[in-house]
Design goal:
Layout lengths: L4 E3 L1 H13 L7 E7 L7 E7 L5 E6 L2 E6 L3 H4 L2 E7 L4 E7 L3
Parallel strand pairs: 1-6, 2-5
Antiparallel strand pairs: 2-3, 4-5, 6-7
C-alpha cells in the first residue's frame, strides 16, 4: 500500500524529539487523521496512539505512522511540515507538490 503522507525533515526532527522527551510509550505511533466538515472544510490531526483494529500502519523515515482506513484517501498526497516563527509554532499540512 502507498504511504499517503510525507514528513519534512523539520517535522521529523520535532516528532522524534517529542517521542523521546515527552514520555510517549514505546508501543505508540504517530496517528495522522482528519476531522471533517463544517464551513472550514477538513481539519488535519496529529497525535500519538496505539494501533487499533483496521488501522493502516506505515513507517515514514523511521517514524511509525497510523492512519484510520476511512481517513486514508483524505490524506493522500499531504505533506506534514513544522513551522517555527515569531508568530506561531506548530505542525502544518500542505499539499505535496513534489
Amino acid at each position: 500500500m502507498i504511504v499517503p503522507i510525507k514528513i519534512t525533515e523539520k517535522a521529523q526532527i520535532e516528532i522524534k524529539n517529542i517521542m523521546q522527551h515527552k514520555n510517549i510509550p514505546a508501543n505508540y505511533a504517530l496517528r495522522v487523521g482528519v476531522k471533517g466538515g463544517g464551513c472550514g472544510g477538513m481539519a488535519y490531526q496529529l497525535g500519538f496512539d496505539k494501533a487499533k483494529e483496521g488501522d493502516q500502519q506505515f513507517h515514514v523515515d523511521g517514524i511509525p505512522v497510523l492512519v484510520e482506513k476511512k481517513h486514508y484517501m483524505f490524506l493522500m498526497g499531504m505533506l506534514v511540515d513544522f513551522y517555527e516563527g515569531n508568530d506561531a509554532r506548530g505542525f502544518t499540512f500542505v499539499k505535496d507538490e513534489g
